[in-house]
Design brief:
Length: about 240
Amino acid sequence: MLLRNAWYIAAWADELGSAPLARRICNEPVVLFRGKDGRAAALTDRCCHRAAPLHLGTLIEGRIQCGYHGLVFDGSGRCVAIPGQSRIPEDARVRSYPIIEKNQLVWLWMGEAEKADPSLIVDFPYHDDKAKWPNKHDMYPIRGNYMLMVDNLMDLTHLGYLHAKTVGGNPAQHVTAEMKTTRTPTGLKFTRWMKNSVPPPSYVKAAGFAGRVDRCQEFEFVAPSTVLQWTGAIDAGAPYSDP
Ligand code: FES
Ligand SMILES: [Fe+2]
């Protein structure tokens, strides 16, 4: 089942450039582009004339021109030009989606537009503060149900086995981790502490730990498709404060 009345990340903001971008969100083909004013727009990727995929067309001054017979659509999905005729029918339009660009991400609302509440969008302020939070980003397509990815991230018992040589380390310390799970209004959050444990290879490489550590993982699932991850370690027994 797909939740339609929800915000979904459709792209990184810097993916919207001079060419239309095709994505499939909630099994719907969507084309993304920027209007003349630079604002992001998202339309059904299907021309209302003869159903050609709009992403195969061209961007002309912030509008998208279908590559089949040349109809032109603006960011609201309205047809604004039809080659060879001056009359544009009222219903010559394609569906547009509520779209918000925030913290370097482009979010789409796939359901009823009047229910699209921007305050429901998950905050990622770290993306905007590269000095304090150095970051880079990418896209990683996975051929599988998105819920399997949520399952994977919310069940870290696999770390000691699957990631033994990197972020995993010794499987035994994952089994005995102190685990606290909390329901949230929109999902679930857990905190895992692996106190006085041997740091896994990636942690040693990144921070140069010489001995045992107190290690923490804090993960939060925000329905339907966001998982926030925090992880870190300190020398075992050292005082800890949240950065
Ligand atoms: S199919 Fe798009 S203009 Fe004809
Ligand atoms: Fe993993």
